[in-house]
Design a protein that fits this description.
By secondary structure, the protein is α+β, with helices and mostly antiparallel strands. The chain has two domains: about 30 residues, no CATH class; about 60 residues, no CATH class. It has three helices and two strands, in the order αβαβα. The chain has a two-stranded parallel ribbon with strand order 1-2. The termini are far apart. The mean pLDDT is about 85.
Length: about 90
Amino acid sequence: MGMTITEKILCRHTEHKEVQPGMLINATVDIALGNDITAPIAVSEFREAGGTSIFDKEKIVFVLDHFTPTKTSVPPGNASSSGNLPGSRT
């Protein structure tokens, strides 16, 4: 049986000739997306793991959509930490 469209896309971003469900792959990404809920957690884990630089600042996007606009004039703390990766532009 052939690969699904998702498997084909993932396969093109690996060194594998075929990917299958359950495989652990290391894929290059076109873009890494985080939002105002997940990005602060990812940034915190990145720092805790000893991360000091990001792979390509042109390929990282933070979308602030869950808490925007804010209910008050003071944005939640997690929105302000989204752009604090080393090498990021805010």
